[in-house]
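User: Study the fold:
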Amino acid sequence: MKNKIITIKRYICGKEEFDFSELFVNTEYGTEILPINVFLIEHKKLGNILINTGCSNLLKKNAVQYSALKAKHKISFEPEDSIISQMSKEEMDPLCIKKVLLTHCDPECCGALPLLPKYEIVSSAQVLCVLNFGFSSEGVMKSTIPNNNTPKSATGIFNGDTVLRNYFKWVYDAFGDGSVLGVDLSGHAKAMMGFFLPEKNIFFAADSAIDERILNEDIIPGEKLLQLQYDADDYISNIATLRRFHRENPDIKIIFSHSVCDETVFT
């Protein structure tokens, strides 16, 4: 299991505005514009793997859905923010992406899936089910759904030892080699996964909270924030679990979709 994850790199593929004073009941934070993060993992055996894809202009193809998205979430992005555009600037061929780890099916997570030429989507069976069949009821944009020929693989159960077992009922093995472990974090979305890289002590916790302040401070989600979640009770439960996980495992870095990351954490 050692030395399977070679590098991790972050890309900002869009931004979202949050008014903390409206979303939390006991904070002095105001309006902030936070990144929409995409992570590129270089795996020794499997090659280049993305965690989510970020936004792209495909979101704007479905005008009605896009208007509804903008009314609910203050998302902004430019064409050059696309993961494809950023890779091109670095002279990286999109063909180098072999797999996409999909945390959930929000438009800003799978917004560039159809632009990638040849890859496999890996996630839980529940997330893949939403991707395949849930766009009419779950807010998944038709324009962000990959073609039917795109292979998809559901994560299997992990049978080894891991600290995650102390906090989550099920632990999944994304690639069957223990290099990326998954857990269910559904609540913000109907189906959502978090991904843990044991070698790097990094836990990508998707949209289970806005950012690390929910872990480090006693800020409490307000009614408006809870109304934005698919299941408010599960959302609150996940926050409590992650707070305990963070408190008892301070050496593990928890990163959210909108974290303002210290890039040194990836070196």
About this structure: The domain at 5-266 is CATH 3.60.15.10 (Metallo-beta-lactamase; Chain A). The mean pLDDT is 94. Residues 8 and 259 are 15 Å apart (CA to CA). Residues 232-248 form the longest helix (17 residues).
